[in-house]
Amino acid sequence: MQTFSIPYYKDHVTLNVPDENLKAAIYPKAESYQAALPEAELVREALEHPIGSEKLCELAKGKKKITIVTSDHTRPVPSKITLPILLAELRKGNPEAEITILIATGLHRETTQAEQRQMFGDKIVDEERIVVNNAFRKEDFDFVCKLPSEAELWVNREALTCDLLITEGFIEPHFFAGFSGGRKSILPGICNAATVNENHSYKAVSNPHAAAGVLEGNPIHEDMLCAAKAVHVQFILNVALDAQKKIIAAWAGDLEKAHAEGVKFVRSLAQCPVVEGDIVVTSNGGYPLDQNLYQSPKAVATAEACCREGGVIIMCCSCADGMGGSNFERLITMGTVDEIDAYLSKIPPKESISEQWCAQIYSRILKHHKVILVTTFLDHELVRKANMIPASDVNEALEMALEMMGKNAQVVVIPDGVAVLAVKG
Length: 425
Hints:
About 35% of the residues lie in helices and about 25% in strands.
């Protein structure tokens, strides 16, 4: 019997796989990567040696209004470490600057003050000006330009009225944007709902280049990059994280050049060859990404790459915050997977519905695989309505899958599906 620790909410669950059934266990190299410096020193080193840019303290000189775009409560960006260092660097160059921290929510709900304190620490919440993006409050956004897809770019005014725009985030494989980080802080981070919806249209998401690890020819990435350039992002700080959400590398500087270096590093650690199994067990990496079902296609798409036609995917996702969005819940429970896909495929890009892309990804996967959702928070009847099979325990789920696929079924375990980039060949 082989035992695996699978991330689940703020802890782990233990999976037991019989030796005769285990085909492979896939871990990113980040699991064993040893960083050269402590976390804060990695960040300071990146700021001391920016890529393709002046130092941030130099850029800050003479600027009156500075905006830092950071991630929301659904992302494990270690802002308690990064933001104090960024703020100190800015004030070293310009102690009088008016600094705003703009939380990039995309289409997510607004980040609460309690969550801000958990993310940033009390000192920053008490002493800094913090604005939370709300993609549905139309009056907060100004039109900037048309994107390559012909979508209109509407961006939060806090990013358009500053003299220096900075973004911070982390880089990991992304199931249709290629990789997170860099330009993604702007679109979808601080755009209005219409812009985000069109960027994530059925047509864009179904493009074969809109896939994990793919940037070239990816229409979603191309719109995102255009958006970040259009609003003049002058400096980024991006980090890579290990399984404990600790910083193992950092890059700072030019929007494209610094991000490209980060992507190169993350790809080197995340990319693994596809190993195909009858059953694939994975998770969304635990909290905060497994808070809701809406976020979970990220890991399920990784499992899809390793699951044979007709196989079973076991997804461990707490869903402690529920489904994750009313539109997603409505769409994923509206009928069979064929009916869902047929409905979504008829929606023109400019009429895209918020959250439809995750229902689209799930319907694509569910056409070819059964999905068992391991959750102790989400109502199991609702899971069934979403065309999935509920389970309360990962080992119970494995027993169910073995019954479906046969006692000799081969099992592939990917403990953190978000951190792995599975590539054929």
